[in-house]
Amino acid sequence: MSSRRRQKAERPAQLLEAAFALFLERGFAATRIDDIAERAQVSKGTVYLYYPSKEALLTAAVEELLLPRLANLRQILELAEQPAWPRLRQVFEAMWTLAVDPQGLAVAGLPKLMISECGNFPDLARRFVERWIAPMQDEVLLGLVQQGLASGEFQVDDPAYQVRVIVAGFVFQLVWRHSLAEFDGRGLDMR
């Protein structure tokens, strides 16, 4: 494949990564298509060639860049030969690494972005909950907690409630890390 064709094939991901980074840095409303084009080093027209609007960029970024990463967490659940506690720890480490990866698409700001934009994009917020939060809670974490209960590793009265508390704490830590940690310096390393 020629260099030009390769660039063209990589362009959608390049635009999504630029848009998502700017949405996290500046917020959705403050990010302009011109900013995305500049960050991606393309013309404004090129952005519109691939995505008709900023809203389409946000939706595609969440769905194409982020939601597929949940598959890695599900793979840990399938390691049935290991006890539940080490696998639960692996899930937390994988979630934290995904959230703060300085080399890749760090998603620590995603919960803040979803919370701030859910009123403007209820369908996207619903898909985020249905395809990211709910599966993480119900399939991955609850599955591990239930396996730990069955094996005697965990003692929990209400596993579903406990998992929601864990997820809420994790999401808050991500929001804190993305928005407030520089003012406090006491952020947690969740690994």
What report would you give on this structure?
It is a single chain. The chain is mainly α and 191 residues long. It folds into two domains: 3-63, Arc Repressor Mutant, subunit A (Orthogonal Bundle); 66-184. It is built from ten helices and no strands. Helix 5 (70-77) packs parallel to helix 8 (122-151). The N and C termini lie far apart (41 Å).
- Rg: 19 Å
How many structural domains does the protein architecture include? 2
Let me know the number of strands: 0
Low-pLDDT windows of residues: none
Q: How large is the count of helical segments?
A: 10
Spatial gap, N to C terminus = 41 Å
- Main sheet specs: none
Listing every helix as H and every strand as E from the N terminus to the C terminus, the arrangement reads HHHHHHHHHH
Overall SS class: mainly alpha
Helix content: over 70%
Mean pLDDT across every amino acid position: 83
| Strand-residue proportion | under 5%
Task: Summarize it.
The chain is mainly α and 191 residues long. The protein contains 10 helices and no strands.
